[in-house]
Write a structure and sequence with these properties.
3 domains; 5-stranded antiparallel β-sheet; 5 strands; mainly alpha; 22 helices; 6% strand
Length: 522
């Protein structure tokens, strides 16, 4: 448990756990990468610019965003902030001193980044959201699996021994040092033997050897029937991450087998990580892309679908289930095809960010309204009288503005109320901050697409992190576009124009306008 009953520290830990949860909705998820990976991304981008794979404007965007983040970051000292400003006054040229300077600064900060946050917390120089987003992103960027981290933090909070938030930061830093990326052996088994020209490779396990391998490592083999299996060696920080890496490798093999033989590989539903106590599900991971509007409007099997929207939805499906390169190409193709200005492909990133931003207040208020109604009978009566979800959210927003909002039982919901209160008190700047953060994630997707398609880069430093952050956001944006198409009869760029007007007109004099952003975009 936390050593001190400090509401700020308690909220920070709860928010950190929320970011590490598999069940977080898009409006409570991580939208960006950590600052250390952002430095590595800039270092990589400078080299890609020299090779012609990224434009100077694209790399400049990375540099400007990084400098802004570091300038407000308590884990950097003033000398480091000044050094970074000096390095990025102009776009660093590959192999130059400024280029290498970014790499050196990244290495210096990453060596004790979490300890730095611990010191910032101890001195009171932090906010809940800034702490939780940056610490969670840093840990996930470093290669830890979210569930592993969630269990790690929960175990320390549930322990009888008291631990302060700075001490938790130190424990996480120690775990990073103690768990470097290392090799894990993972068994992938198949229900049928792959049809290959020279038969399955000699290194594969066959028949009884598959079961023998599992038994020798303490796994239960009941029901395991496989004529062929291979043992992968993957790099990961923890067993859950090893399973994730093996799934990605399996997807790559499946794609290669399909185009080589015309037949799909047939894996069994489980994979086994050596050193684990039980198997992991083969299809456990989901990137979280969801377009619920197709279900709400009963359009899943619609025969009158708009061709451009329908094509975009098919491309977007790759962002949910395909290998990373196909996911990036398909995901960006869906976005660009609907939202890019003819003269500027990158404009699609900002246009989609506008639509997602307009969806944010209503999404959070809707969740809070149902959480409040489930625990506070007096407010439930008031909320249930609302004829529409829009009115329900307006009632809740008015409670927050009038300071009539009862305290939510969950610390997570309390933190959400605090965020909405801040938004309603000054909507314009707050919504712009949200739009910038979401837009940066979509611009990163565009850069990843260019690195893959123009540079053949399948191992970009931010590839995995970008898919983790952008998938749910893209689904939320496409959900809005689908609603605009089927319900409002609006083209995607018409919807963007109306949404831009709504964001421009919102003001602190009429905070409930935040609830009506979707209607204002109608």
């Amino acid at each position: 448990m936390l050593a001190h009953v400090n509401p700020l520290e308690n909220a920070a830990v709860v928010r950190l756990l929320e970011f590490l949860s598999d069940q977080r909705p898009w409006y409570r998820s991580l939208w960006g990468i950590g600052v250390v990976l952002a430095m590595d991304e800039l270092y990589e981008g400078c080299a890609a610019m020299r090779q012609g794979h990224l434009s100077e404007a694209s790399v400049k965007r990375v540099a400007v965003s990084l400098q802004k983040r570091v300038g407000a970051h308590p884990a950097f000292n003033e000398a480091e902030k000044a050094l970074l400003r000096q390095q990025v006054q102009q776009i660093p040229r590959a192999e130059g001193a400024s280029h290498f300077g970014i790499r050196e600064l990244s290495a210096q900060v990453s060596s004790d980044y979490l300890s730095r946050w611990g010191r910032a917390v101890a001195s009171g120089k932090f906010t809940v959201e800034h702490f939780a987003r940056n610490v969670a992103a840093h840990l996930l960027d470093a290669g830890f699996a979210a569930r592993y981290l969630h269990d790690f933090v929960k175990a320390r909070l549930d322990s009888p021994a008291r631990i302060s938030l700075p001490e938790l930061c130190e424990a996480l830093q120690a775990e990073m040092r103690a768990s470097p990326r290392r090799e894990f052996n993972v068994l992938l088994a198949y229900t049928t033997k792959p049809d290959l020209l020279n038969g399955i490779p000699a290194s594969w396990l066959r028949g009884a050897a598959v079961v023998d391998w599992l038994r020798a490592r303490g796994f239960d083999t009941a029901g395991v029937r496989s004529p062929a299996a291979l043992v992968l060696r993957v790099l990961a920080r923890d067993p859950i991450g090893a399973a994730q890496a093996a799934r990605s490798e399996s997807d790559r093999y499946t794609a290669r087998a399909l185009i080589a033989t015309g037949e799909r590989l047939n894996p069994v539903p489980w994979l086994w990580v050596e050193g684990s106590q039980s198997p992991a599900a083969m299809k456990e991971d989901s990137r979280g892309v969801s377009v619920r509007e197709l279900y709400r409007e009963d359009r899943v099997f619609s025969a009158s679908a708009n061709q451009s929207v329908d094509a975009a939805l098919e491309l977007l499906a790759h962002l949910e289930a395909s290998s990373p390169p196909a996911a990036v190409a398909g995901g960006w193709g869906a976005i660009e095809g609907l939202l890019a200005d003819p003269s500027d492909r990158a404009s699609a990133a900002d246009n989609l960010a506008t639509l997602v931003t307009c969806s944010f207040p209503r999404a959070e208020l809707t969740r809070l309204s149902y959480r409040l109604a489930s625990t506070h009978p007096e407010q439930r009566t008031e909320l249930e009288r609302a004829p529409t979800n829009r009115e329900r959210c307006r009632i809740l927003a008015q409670m927050i503005v009038d300071r009539r909002m009862p305290e939510m039982r969950s610390v997570s919901d309390q933190a959400a109320v605090a965020r909405i209160k801040k938004l309603l008190s000054n909507p314009g700047p707050e919504l712009q901050t949200i739009r910038d953060a979401i837009g940066e994630s979509f611009h990163r997707l565009y850069r990843q697409r260019n690195l893959i398609l123009h540079g053949g880069r399948l191992d970009s430093v931010a590839l995995t992190a970008n898919l983790r952050t952008v998938a749910k956001l893209a689904g939320a944006g496409m959900d809005r576009i689908t609603h605009g198409h089927y319900v409002q009869n609006l083209k995607p760029l018409e919807l963007v124009a109306k949404a831009n007007l709504a964001l421009a007109m919102v003001s602190r004099e009429f905070p409930l306008g935040c609830v009506d952003l979707l209607e204002a975009a109608d």
